[in-house]
Specification:
With 97 residues, this protein is of the alpha+beta class. It contains three helices and four strands. A hairpin with a 2-residue loop joins strand 3 and strand 4.
């Protein structure tokens, strides 16, 4: 589980570098919720335009759906995306195994 969560965080941070910019600030928070672990990754970029992730999936580009959502789903968890002009935040919650 730890290796997969690290891979999710790396994918999120790679997206910050790619889409917000080299050296852009980002924050990672890890919380122990007893029977679950929560990891949040947040940046202050422009956010992901509405429909962009669905468009990428339709084009066969599965970066987010595979490297983030797919890994979390395989762990039995959830990945929630909040995005807008304030930036982007992924909140990942997985059960302890």
């Amino acid at each position: 589980m730890v290796a997969e969560l690290v891979a999710v965080v790396v994918a999120c941070l790679d997206n910050v570098t790619r889409h917000v910019g080299e050296g852009a600030p980002a924050w990672v928070l890890l919380e122990d919720l007893g029977d679950r672990v929560a990891v949040s990754v947040r940046d202050e970029g422009d956010g992901i335009p509405e429909g962009r992730l669905a468009e990428a999936r339709a084009e066969g580009r599965l970066g987010v759906s595979g490297s983030i959502e797919g890994r979390v789903r395989d762990l039995g968890g959830t990945a929630t995306l909040s995005t807008g002009p304030f930036g982007t935040e992924w909140e990942v919650v997985v059960p302890k195994g």
